[in-house]
Amino acid sequence: MNDCEDEQRTCHYRGKWFGFGTVRDSEHVLFAVFQDTPHAESSLTEKSFTSNLINTSESLARVSYVTSSVFDRCIVRDRNVLGIASAHVSSIRMRRADIKLNAITKKVRAICIVDQVVPGDCEGHAAMGYGEETAGQGISEAQIGKIRKNIRMDLANEFSAIIPTEQHQWPWHVGVLARVDGYGEI
């Protein structure tokens, strides 16, 4: 059994055959950093990530599928963007959290990244959230709080330094269209 079952299927609101398919380990994702996003200098902090991690709705952009114009139109909209931070999907998915259960410590999946597109999102949208076992049975609320704080600190370390959006190498619109079936490796 996979500890993040939603990663195995597309979560596109129009159905299974729409969008770019599941988020692959070989991909990179972007985290949009707005003026009001907590950060330190040019780095993310554990406070950069919101309670959206609880319901796997912390927004990410899939690097290969989001052009600069799509980013501006669908993600930034009318907000003041400070920049972006990127991370490799496999590195995020490899993160583990320690759960203390009686006399043992169990290592569980910390973060899941899913292809999640809801009405109003761009097709290259993804979302991340806490692994299901980070709030499993037998774990106190205090332990859950500590575990999740550590996970957010790990995420802050996993993402690159914040860079201005114009310094990022955005894909060309034609290149994104060529991948529209979601099955071609990048």
Structural description of this entry:
This protein is α+β, with helices and mostly antiparallel strands and 186 residues long. It has one domain. The strands form three sheets. A six-stranded mixed sheet has the order 1-9-10-5-2-6. Strand 3 and strand 4 form a beta hairpin. The protein is globular, with a radius of gyration of 17 Å. The two termini are 27 Å apart.
Counting copies of identical and different chains, the oligomeric state is single chain
What strand line-up does the widest sheet have? 1-9-10-5-2-6
Total DSSP E strands: 10
What is the N-to-C order of secondary-structure elements (H for helix, E for strand)? EEEEEHEHEEEEHH
Q: Report the helical percentage.
A: 10-25%
Biggest sheet architecture? 6 strands, mixed
Strand content: 25-35%
Shape: globular
Overall structural domain count: 1
- In round numbers, the mean pLDDT is 87
Distance from N terminus to C terminus (CA atoms, Å) equals 27 Å
Radius of gyration: 17 Å
Structural class: alpha+beta
Number of helices: 4
Low-confidence stretches: 181-186
